[in-house]
Amino acid sequence: MTDNYVIETRGLSKRYARDVLAVDGLELRVRQGEVYGFLGPNGAGKTTTLRMLSGLLHPTSGSATVVGQPPGSPAGLAKLGAMVETPAFYPYLSGRDNLRVMARYTRAAASRIETVLQQVDLSDRARHKFKTYSTGMKQRLGVAAALLKDPELLILDEPTSGLDPQGTVEMRTLIRGIAREGRTVLLSSHLLNEVEQTCDRVGVIVKGHLVAEGTIDELRGRGGLILRASPVDRARTVLGQLGAASVQVKDGRFTLDVDPAQAAVINRRLVEAGVDVSELRESERSLEDVFLQLTEDGGRGKA
Amino acid sequence: MIASLRADTLKARKRTANWILVGILLAWLILLSYVLDYFIFKHPPPGFRSEVPPSVLIRIVFPENVIPTVLSVLGTIGAAVMLIMGALSTASEYGWSTVQTILVQKPGRGAVLGGKIVNLALTSLIVTLVLFLVAAAASLILAGVDGRAARLPAASDVVRGFGAAWLVLGVYTALGMTLGVVFRSTAAAIGGGLTYVFVVETVIGSLLGNTGGIKEILKFLPGTAVHGVTGTFPFSPTAITRGSGGGPALISGTRGLITLGVYLLAFIAISLLVFSRRDVGA
């Protein structure tokens, strides 16, 4: 493992056909013990990346290490638990028997089966056949199978996909609990709310490129100021003299792209110029704003 | 590979379809090769014609002919059942997408497929054993019913016959497994496999079998090899030719064994190559 990176990719690319470049020179680094959100719109290359990291797809070029091993190697897989896309199990077997099959593949102790079933709260339905499970139960069985090996790294692809609100909250709680055990989690999603509430750091992938990476706060970046003042024309003139960039006015409300620390100076100058200030506060960009800006630019924009 | 074998054994044991297939094979053997034959030869229907009288033909169902009787079902229903079982073992993994679940577990791809191959080899061994035991039991019962003395085949012949039967079933199982890996579809693997076994080889053999060039090609096909192998275990008396493939074998038993061995190794090699290298979920 390089430094404390559990996942590290170097120029990782996957081309499906001559003109379909799903992942393009991806440079991804996931630190030990963090919940890393892999965010991107549908078709951005998230699942393709996770498949390459799990050893299901061979990269067209570039390389990767996963828990210090090449993707797909038995030594690496021994430390990796993965649920890529829809949880897939044998429909004619019960949930418990499906886990028995996976435990045999991984040589996990039989006692782990009951442990992970309790962890995902599926013990009561474990004797029923997988084909009778609801979407939420299938997702939980997928997480249980990924946990069987007691892995250092967990890769979860859209774990709340198809879940109702209650199921989503339960899955989110489960993931945070897994992270508290000291495991690293790479979580792919296109749901901003999910990522915002679950992840320590986020990487945004658009058209196969990683276009932004950082903590949620870092991605939101420096906020600006929201100002409501009248008369509007005089306020605009004063703000212009102050050099406030990107002054936008809508319904008497100014959005200023300035350092929020300048709020006191701006307030004083406006009052001195006879402008009534009824509102002056720091504006916050939501992750959604950042995401939309990044994706609208087609991966060329900067957060 | 032991871990994969244990996992695959559990999957195969719990799969109802596998038990149904074995049940169909045994029912076919008991009802068509023993019970029906016994009643037809014991009470020949009006107009029954054969160069060999029914009183001699009835010996097909007695213990002395256990080996050729078992071998006679291998090229038809035996081939179909084991081909389906082999195809289900691999193609279903793609159909249910469980291939991606098992490939992110600990074993490498070679070990995963290796476990499947060993499990299928053991399955075909057990099926062969059950076929011989059931055939022996049925023939002993019918001999008893008919008041005949039970004359069992020589032990060396039983061993040779058992080995030949295991090889034949193993080749068709491996064919199904390979088609499953290549097509990644249960319907395509089973449909394609059964079409080849029952239509392509049969039609070519019966319509064009005497054409010079086609005859040479037929000598390299698995069905011809099976016919060559089963031909080395004639019925007693040898005047009985029924059920051993129809017509004289195009190749010798030794060449048949070699051909089947080559097919078995080729199917395993193709499966391993494709399974190890091909992307999953692309």
Write up what this structure looks like.
The complex is a heterodimer of chains A (303) and B (282). Chain A is an alpha/beta fold and 303 residues long. Chain A is 35% helix and 28% strand. Chain A contains eleven helices and 14 strands. Chain A has a six-stranded mixed β-sheet, sandwiched between helices. In chain A, strands 1, 2, 3 and 5 form a four-stranded antiparallel β-sheet that branches. In chain A, strand 1 (5-17) and strand 2 form a beta hairpin. In chain A, helix 3 (95-106) crosses helix 4 and helix 4 crosses helix 5 (135-147). Chain B starts with a helix and ends in a 5-residue tail after the last helix. Chain B has eleven helices and no strands. The model of chain B has no long low-confidence stretch (mean pLDDT 89). Chain B has one domain. Chain B is globular and about 60 Å long. Chain B is an all-alpha fold. Chain B has helices at residues 2-14, 16-42, 54-57, 66-95, 98-103, 109-146, 155-183, 186-208, 212-218, 222-230, 253-277. The chains are: A alpha/beta (303), B mainly alpha (282).
* Order of helical and strand elements of chain A: EEEEHEHEHHHEHEHEEHEHEEHEH
- Mean pLDDT of chain B equals 89
Helix content of chain B: over 70%
**Biggest sheet statistics of chain B:** none
| H and E string of chain B | HHHHHHHHHHH
Strand content of chain A: 25-35%
Shape estimate of chain A: elongated
On the 0 to 100 scale, the average pLDDT of chain A is 86
Structural class of chain A: alpha/beta
* Biggest pleated-sheet summary of chain A: 6 strands, mixed
Whole-angstrom Rg of chain A: 24 Å
Rounded Rg of chain B:
20 Å
